[in-house]
Amino acid sequence: QQEKEDLQGKLKLREHLSQTAGKSEATPAPSKNIDSEIKQLQCKLKNPNTETTKQSTTIKSLKNQVQEKEERIRELQAKISLLERDLTMKRHLIEDLRSRLKANQENEKTSNETLESLERKVKALAEDKKASIDSLEQRFNVAMKEKSQYEQMYHKAKYDLEKKDLKLTKLESKMIETECAMADLETAASQQLHGLAKQSAQALGTLQKELLLASDKVEEFKTFVKTLTRELHCSVQELRTKIKLAKKMGGMKSCKGGLTQECLQLAASILNISTTDLYEILQEGDDEETARTKMECEKDKEWLQHIQKLLEVQFPFASYLMDAVLEKLNEKKKLVEEYSSLMKHTL
């Protein structure tokens, strides 16, 4: 608008100058320049006019929008005032309701407390009543049980008394009968005792005789077993000595076949040892034989001790005794076979 006003002012000045110049000067050249400038200024003026029209239209539209918005704001403010009134009313109502709720809650608390105290009292009274009823029922039951027990005891005692009276009468009659029978039994028992004493004396004599015979038989059996074991032991020892002699005889015969002094010296020279060492080596078999005989003697002693223990132990011992005797008999059998085979070889 300012530019427009400035241009309009310049146009007015130019027109005024042109008018004054046209009056004062008669030449046409400057008027042409002024017209051209006027035209330029008019063109320049047209552009801001268009711009001002545009801006005025925009201003009008903006004014319309502002009015609409103001109306909208007024409506909203009216609504807000209504809502604020509603809110204040609701707040007053809420506060009233809260105060009422508090009063009701306090009343409810007091009523609940009174109810709880009353319930406690009722429970206590009910429990006391129940306890008293239970105690009375228990007493009543105990009294009834005692009554029934006493009645049973009375009936039982009455029945027992009647029974005992009957038993007494029976016992008295039986006592008289038993006294008579006892007298008869004493006479009979004295007679029987005399007879039994005689019979027992005779039986004891016979038993003593039988015991003596049995002990004699046992002693005879023990002597028989001892002699049998000794004979077996002696026969086994004889067989062992015979076998040793047979072995020595076989060795002597083999030595007689060619074991001379020269042969011994030759054997000693081959073995690179002396003849005395060779004799010691040949006699090592005798040491082994003596050790073996010692072992056999120890075994025989153990066997005899075992037989003696079997005879001394309690019954039954026949199977163990039989096993021990059979063991020695089997040993004797083996020795007899060995001796017979050696004798065949030596012959």
TrEMBL record:
Keywords: Coiled coil. Residues 1-17 have a biased composition (Basic and acidic residues). Residues 47-56 have a biased composition (Polar residues). One of its GO terms (cellular component) is centriole. Residues 1-56 are annotated as: Disordered. GO terms for biological process: centriole-centriole cohesion. Residues 59-188 form a coiled coil. Gene3D superfamilies: 1.10.287.1490. PANTHER family: CENTLEIN (PTHR18957:SF0). This is CNTLN protein. It comes from Myiagra hebetior.
